[in-house]
């Protein structure tokens, strides 16, 4: 995939916060022109022994969800763990994995936040700008905002609103499976909330987490434990 070099990643936290505010203005939320034919899921795991990050990207047909390609990359995590600055820690290794991907996805799901972030630039939004591709944040927990609990039925959802932002809508609390905990979906870049929810639910394969990110998570975990060799 084509990678856009927006900035350096090794900057001080104060500079990173200022940069997030600048980049958030470039995020565009809009309706997809057509239904995606290829989606990809990406995730990263930490190898605690070496303090390395292991990132994986898996591309699937959509809506059939047949695997097309999988890639992985490993790299040192040089940025400290700071809440709200996750992309500065994880994005460099994710970018390395995406650079190996021959398939061009029409939409990418990431285990993280999109605009549901204190400065409107979570990991999915940041990666969307870097990859110039529609991105969706599919997080297992809420970072900011408040929402009502959706009904227990799969497909139900409620608006996630950012109280400090005047109550603006920043995502949705989405029930992906009957009776299980919801996930938090927020648009990253080049897609709107309705499209983000539709694709997240369209990637359902019987579990709480959408198939592309679930399988990317599974792959990085297996690599970290030495149970799987490298993807291409």
Describe this structure in words.
An eight-stranded mixed sheet has the order 3-2-1-4-5-8-7-6, with helices on both faces. A hairpin with a 4-residue loop joins strand 1 and strand 2. Helices cover 25% and strands 25% of the residues. With 232 residues, the chain is α+β, with helices and mostly antiparallel strands.
**Tally of structural domains:** 1
Give the averaged pLDDT, no decimals. Answer: 94
Q: Give me the CATH architecture, please.
A: 2-Layer Sandwich
**Can you identify the CATH class?**
Alpha Beta
How many H/I helical runs? 5
In spatial order, strands of the major sheet run: 3-2-1-4-5-8-7-6
Which fold name corresponds to the CATH topology? archaeoglobus fulgidus dsm 4304 fold
Order of helices and strands: HEEEHEHEEEEHH
What would a concise description of this structure say?
With 232 residues, this protein is of the alpha+beta class. It is built from 5 helices and 8 strands, in the order H-E-E-E-H-E-H-E-E-E-E-H-H.
List the helices and strands and how they pair.
Elements: H1 13-24, E1 38-47, E2 52-61, E3 67-76, H2 86-99, E4 107-110, H3 123-131, E5 135-139, E6 157-162, E7 168-174, E8 183-189, H4 193-202, H5 211-224
Parallel strand pairs: 1-4, 4-5
Antiparallel strand pairs: 1-2, 2-3, 5-8, 6-7, 7-8
């Amino acid at each position: 995939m084509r990678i856009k070099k927006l900035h350096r990643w090794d900057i001080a936290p104060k500079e990173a916060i200022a940069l997030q505010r600048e980049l958030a203005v470039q995020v565009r939320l809009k309706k997809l022109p057509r239904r995606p034919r290829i989606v990809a899921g990406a995730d990263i795991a930490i190898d605690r022994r070496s303090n390395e990050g292991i990132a994986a990207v898996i591309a699937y047909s959509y809506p059939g969800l047949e695997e097309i390609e999988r890639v992985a990359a490993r790299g040192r995590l040089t940025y400290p763990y700071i809440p709200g600055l996750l992309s500065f820690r994880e994005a460099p290794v994710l970018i390395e994995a995406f650079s190996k991907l021959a398939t061009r996805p029409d939409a990418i799901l990431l285990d993280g936040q999109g605009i549901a972030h204190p400065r409107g630039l979570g990991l999915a939004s940041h990666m969307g700008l870097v990859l110039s591709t529609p991105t969706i944040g599919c997080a297992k927990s809420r970072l900011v905002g408040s929402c009502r609990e959706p009904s227990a039925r799969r497909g139900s959802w409620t608006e996630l609103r950012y109280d400090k932002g005047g109550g603006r809508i920043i995502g949705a609390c989405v029930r992906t499976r009957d009776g299980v905990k919801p996930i938090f979906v927020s648009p990253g870049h080049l897609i709107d909330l309705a499209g983000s929810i539709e694709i997240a639910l369209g990637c359902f394969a019987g579990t709480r987490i959408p198939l592309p990110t679930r399988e990317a998570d599974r792959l990085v975990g297996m690599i970290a434990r030495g149970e799987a060799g490298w993807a291409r």
